[in-house]
Structure to design on (475 residues):
């Protein structure tokens, strides 16, 4: 039997939460205290306290109300919507002693129901004779905002429960009229009592079909047809998350500049530029700093600016292939090269400078490497996802765990953007940006064709989408 100290009903407006609460309160040993953490009232409109805790006290210390709810002899709980007091969310969602009930409803139905309630001013119905009638006007933009908020909260809730090894009791709007489900919920909560019938004091306010409840049904149908209900256009992403690799960041000692490198380039022009700035003052950028040390640098450099450099995914992948895979000397990944040759039948020369390794062979090997990258980033290989070929989107997400870069600089406009950045921090003398070393033994332009581009798009679909990359063209 579950052993809970209290419960929460995660719901939203017009999902049937009032009806669910009424029936929970009908069970002996269960007490639900309304929207206990609604930012505008406590429990219910015109209510002045819950269990002796006033709205003012709750505002000052929301945990005080939570403590009182947990202390009651009954199993007590409350309803919580996505826009309720966020200070209490972490406390309840991470607490395994808090039973989670998740109530859901078709978002179109809940949206239309809310619009009608707003128009009539009638949020509950106890007598059908008093029912007020109105039709809603469907607003596509407003519904999209409504749907986005619901989905974001549901995904957050699901992930937090998964991460903490918890589960919830899910109830759909349609389940609320099922006596067996309600009794099953009470049993799951650990309460022995059962209901012989559901409470019928609350009546369904708008029982007709949703198309009959709106004044512009045709426009609603057209707007909803454009929604990707099954998320068919989502780009699957199985790449492992990347944390904030602060020791790889560079902090200038003579300017308030921090460089957050995205690996995958054998010769980093931006780093050389940073080094040249500090060299003018007889120093060099600090690296291998801990998070505390980097925070100290940030405090001692008010007005600091941070930046990173984005590169076209195909140019970056080709550079990595030449520098890490083909390269048999310093900097090459010999072990991974061996695995690619044996397990993925990637034909590579013992010596990349050998004349027998021509452009055709290079293109074939590079195409095979791109196919390997797709499997690798999807978690389908035993080889690690190396930072040199991890997606740039994941790397930037990792930055955000410590600091968000002020500027995402494109390599094709890097000289201009770095000059702007240096002017913004008051540098009077700025070194020129040096040229990048070409890939060897061949450059991307030697093997580029639409098929190569398509292979790269399959690997880095999210980078192309998030950063708006077009097909590669020589810089």
């Amino acid at each position: 039997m579950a052993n809970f100290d209290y419960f929460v009903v995660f719901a939203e407006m017009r999902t049937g939460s009032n009806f669910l609460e009424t029936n929970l309160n009908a069970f002996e040993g269960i007490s639900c205290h309304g929207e206990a953490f609604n930012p505008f009232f406590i429990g219910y409109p015109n209510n002045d306290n819950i269990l002796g805790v006033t709205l003012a006290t709750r505002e000052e210390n929301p945990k005080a109300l939570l403590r009182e709810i947990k202390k009651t002899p009954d199993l007590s709980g409350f309803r919580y919507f996505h826009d309720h007091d966020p200070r209490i969310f972490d406390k309840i969602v991470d607490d395994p002693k808090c039973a989670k009930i998740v109530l859901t409803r078709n978002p179109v139905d809940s949206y239309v129901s809310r619009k009608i309630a707003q128009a009539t001013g009638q949020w509950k119905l106890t007598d059908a004779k008093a029912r007020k009638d109105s039709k809603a006007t469907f607003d596509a933009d407003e519904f999209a905002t409504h749907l986005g908020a619901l989905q974001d909260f549901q995904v957050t809730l699901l992930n937090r429960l998964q991460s903490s090894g918890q589960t919830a009791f899910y109830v759909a709007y349609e389940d609320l009229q099922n006596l067996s489900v309600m009794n099953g919920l009470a049993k799951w909560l650990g309460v022995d009592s059962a209901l012989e019938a559901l409470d019928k004091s609350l009546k369904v306010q708008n029982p007709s079909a949703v198309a009959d409840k709106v004044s512009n049904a045709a426009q609603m149908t057209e707007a909803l047809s454009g929604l990707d209900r099954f998320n068919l256009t989502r780009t699957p992403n199985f790449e492992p998350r990347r944390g904030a690799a602060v020791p790889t960041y560079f902090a200038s000692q003579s300017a308030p500049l921090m460089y957050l490198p995205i690996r995958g380039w054998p010769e980093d022009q931006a780093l050389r530029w940073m080094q040249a700035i500090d060299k003018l003052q007889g120093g060099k950028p600090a690296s291998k700093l801990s998070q505390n040390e980097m925070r100290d640098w940030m405090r001692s450099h008010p007005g600091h600016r941070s930046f990173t450099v984005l590169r076209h995914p195909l140019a970056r992948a080709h550079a990595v292939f030449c520098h890490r895979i083909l390269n048999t000397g310093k900097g090459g990944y010999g072990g991974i090269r061996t695995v690619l040759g044996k397990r993925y039948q990637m034909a590579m020369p013992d010596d990349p400078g050998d004349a027998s390794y021509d452009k055709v062979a290079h293109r074939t090997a590079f195409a095979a490497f791109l196919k390997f990258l797709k499997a690798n980033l999807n978690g389908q290989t035993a080889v690690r996802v190396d930072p040199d070929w991890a997606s740039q989107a994941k790397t930037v997400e990792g930055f955000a765990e410590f600091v968000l870069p002020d500027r995402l600089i494109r390599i094709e406009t890097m000289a201009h953007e770095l000059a702007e950045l240096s002017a913004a921090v008051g540098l009077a003398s700025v070194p020129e940006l040096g040229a990048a070393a070409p890939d060897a033994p061949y450059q991307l332009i030697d093997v580029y064709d639409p098929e190569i581009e398509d292979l790269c798009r399959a690997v880095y679909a999210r980078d192309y989408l998030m950063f708006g990359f077009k097909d590669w063209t020589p810089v």
Observations:
- The mean pLDDT is 89.
- The domain at 6-225 is CATH 3.40.50.300 (Rossmann fold).
